[in-house]
Amino acid sequence: xTTLQSDIQLINAPAEKTFNYLSDFNxxxxxxxxxxxxxxxxxxxxxxxxxxxxxxxxxxxxxxxYSKIVISSGIQSxxxxxxxxxxxxxxxxxxxxxxxxxxxxxxxxxxxLSKPLTNFINIxxxxxxxxxxxx
Length: 135
Description:
Order of helices and strands: EEHEEEEEEH
Structural class: alpha+beta
Number of helices: 2
Helix content: 25-40%
Radius of gyration: 14 Å
Shape: globular
Strand content: 35-45%
Distance between the termini: 36 Å
Low-confidence stretches: none
């Protein structure tokens, strides 16, 4: 099992507000880096293309109010994975966010994908901070 973790971000927003925003995939288009194309979403699922890599589909697997959202790969994805968004409220106005990517990758895939995936989840987490602080 390959587990990749983002840097922790301190968001100047309550966990409830951050969780509610992230609970709707329609908002994720605001979080994606420029390398993402062909974005399509509903409240509980999305699909997109990462330039030069692959087509990805994701869907909500679990929601634990104000603390965790588990996203899994969709049926269309060639790679089975879970993306876990963990939120920890420090007080009523600050939340720590951390993203964890889990997948069963063979050693060659692990070597090829670890760095780009780590970069992607770090960018995604930085965007979560920027967007949620403006809500």
